[in-house]
Amino acid sequence: MSAASTSELPKYPFARPEKSVDPPAELKKLRQQCPVSRIQLFDGTPGWIVTRHKEDRYRREGYPEIHPGAKKEGIRPTFVHMDDEEHATHRAMTEPFFTKSASTALKPQIQSIVDSLLNKIKQKGCKDGPVDLVAELATPLNPKVLLLTIFKVSEKDANDLLSSNASLGGTSGTATESGPSDVHEFITKLVDSRIEKPANPEDDLISNIVVKQYQKGKFDRDGMINLLYMVLVAGNTAIMSSVALGVLTLLQHPEQLDELKKNPDLAENVVEEVLRYHTPSALNSRRVAREDTTLGGQEIKAGTGIIGSVRSANRDEREYPTPDNFDIHRKIDQNKNLAFGYGPHNCQGQWLSRFELQAVFATLFQKLPNLKLAVKPEELEYTPPTQNVGVTKLPVWF
Ligand code: HEM
Q: Where is this region: Disordered (predicted)?
């Protein structure tokens, strides 16, 4: 590749087409022409983007940031930003609550939360106009599941937090990075109350960390608050987008939607395909080269940032024939679905996410079979083109 100066390199993140959920056109071009390519980040830092490749040789320390907010001074890292043993030790504190089997055990509670959100929507009806599925279903879903089943707070406390207009969106960041103070205050109070009086430590995540880490002097109060804050916000935006974009895409593919209505067991496949097709948390898989390395014929120096474009890899025609078609019958190996990243930093909440989304897609069209969009897709408000794909509202009639 030519030795372009940094200022001539394409700026990342690339922009999606206006008013569309399609991936940026540059990804396809790079995938076909130059799958390991140079880019520059928001602050002019040069880096690489890999649009077709699975990695195992990159580390996190000093990893490239994609927007200025993440570069504030004094941010205390969570395991999202750690490497190797330190990463494994910190990740292990929350891991038992997010394994496949722990998430499977939560399925009945997840279903009942989905049922109650949908019953509320049904009860409200459309007499006052269309219902916004983002506000009424996609946004509260994940925080509600986490607060009730893993943090084990009372339904009242969970509802109070959710109705306080607290912004619970996040990008696997830290309290300081993405934090409205009411959520931070909520977590702080919760941690302090469990420090004072832990519940059964096997039962809830906070008591578990208090008893097994804090009381043994392995972890301090601020670290705990920061970690729990990260867990509470990390996946909310991605779940919100998966629900909203999944509903939108099914409504745009009525024959496939009819199949799902007739056979809700298809929800598991639907979820994998929605995640592949939209890859709603596409900007998170970032690494730094551990050592000088050659990848796709390009020489990458140790210490250089690398964006692993999971959004592009999920549209890789070598892995998925006709990748731009939405097809709920596509065979997708769950372990290969890069929507949740890969390697030691892969998404810790992936099984919980799958089961939440499966419950939504299996139930929504059973309870509201006549659901339809209240506006044209081009009239929806989309997230800014250089951010993760999403819609801010999804008004529907039913
Ligand atoms: C549809 C929903 C979700 C998607 C698409 C998603 C996607 C991702 C992606 C792409 C990463 C980065 C992986 C990498 O760098 O290779 C990630 C990391 C992470 N996610 Fe998720 N996520 C979702 C939901 C959740 C939920 C619900 C939680 C927690 C309750 C969560 C917790 C985390 C954590 C803790 C990490 C950092 C893991 C580490 O660095 O070791 N995610 N997620």
A: 1-24
Ligand 1 touching residue 66 (CB < 6 A): no
Question: Is 1 part of a structural domain of the chain?
Answer: no
pLDDT tops 70 at residue 390: yes
Q: How many domains does the chain have?
A: 1
- 374 Cα: distance to centroid of ligand 1 (angstroms): 31
Q: Which residues contact 329 (CB under 8 A, 6 or more apart)?
A: 269
- Residue bearing the CA closest to ligand 1, atom 27: 235
The answer to whether residue 13 is domain-embedded is yes
Please say whether the beta carbons of 316 and 324 come within 8 A.
no
pLDDT at 8: 87
- Is 170 exposed, middle or buried, given 0-12, 13-18 or 19+ CB atoms closer than 10 A? buried
CATH number of residue 222's parent domain:
1.10.630.10
- pTM to 2 decimals? 0.93
Tell whether ligand 1 has an atom less than 6 A from the beta carbon of residue 231. yes
Query: What pLDDT does residue 176 have?
Result: 46
Domain carrying residue 187? 6-397
Domain-embedded: residue 80 = yes
Contact between 7 and 45 under an 8 Å Cβ cutoff? The reply is no
Arithmetic mean of pLDDT, 204-213: 97
79 lines ligand 1 (CB under 6 A): yes
Asked if residue 381 belongs to a domain, the reply is yes
Closest atom of ligand 1 to 82 CA is 40
